[in-house]
Amino acid sequence: QSVLTQPPSVSGAPGQRVTLSCTGDNSNIGAGYVVHWYQHLPGTAPKLLIYGNINRPSGVPDRFSGSKSGTSASLAITGLQAEDEAYYYCQSYDISLSGSGVFGGGTRLTVL
Amino acid sequence: QVPLQGSGPGLVKPSQTLSLTCAVSGASINSGSYCWSWLRQSAGKGLEWIGLIYTNGNTNSNPSLRSRVTISIDRSKNQFSLKLSSVTAADSAVYYCARSEAGSWTPFDYWGQGSLVTVSS
Prior knowledge:
The complex is a heterodimer of chains A (112) and B (121).
Chain A: E1 9-12, E2 18-23, E3 36-40, E4 47-50, E5 64-69, E6 72-77, E7 86-94, E8 100-103, E9 107-111
Parallel strand pairs in A: 1-9
Antiparallel strand pairs in A: 2-6, 3-4, 3-7, 5-6, 7-8, 7-9
Chain B: E1 4-7, E2 11-12, E3 18-24, E4 34-41, E5 47-54, E6 59-61, E7 69-74, E8 79-84, E9 93-101, E10 108-111, E11 115-119
């Protein structure tokens, strides 16, 4: 199983706001490691969406925002659009794996 | 944009060595500013980081796979490679190559599309 826990699926209507959660523990997110988020359409290259908990790479719309608190992190998407339908993965690092990168199992976002 | 293109056999027999190569375009693999990683995703499971290589040839890998992983770099061809030995069915996955900035806790900013590898006799 994945080190970080994400809900398998989330859905929302166009225009709505959705929040995707990523839960870890005190050996990863809670240890102070940053969280990154990726968007993935199967068959394509994953895309970096949020890095360092809250930062957006150039070209990522400000509809996407990240936050982190304690042992969890969240990705919020406002003004949901059909093109947002994809899988979303969170990533952090883990002390027990010598600081190796660890991922969540991914959340499938469905735009109704 | 930094296209990364992974390639290699899609079918590997159990106990053999899985070999994949990632060709890098749009950036020099010689740049000390970046390091180059391999990751994988098994069916129904999340992503798993396998390991990385720096431009100087130093490597680091996931402790759970370290004994079986070899990552190398070919500067003349602007590509890097993964070898995973003694594979089993559990190693069947989509394998991704990716780039990150050299330094601590940096994200993977460019990824390849993934190469499906099946371990089966």
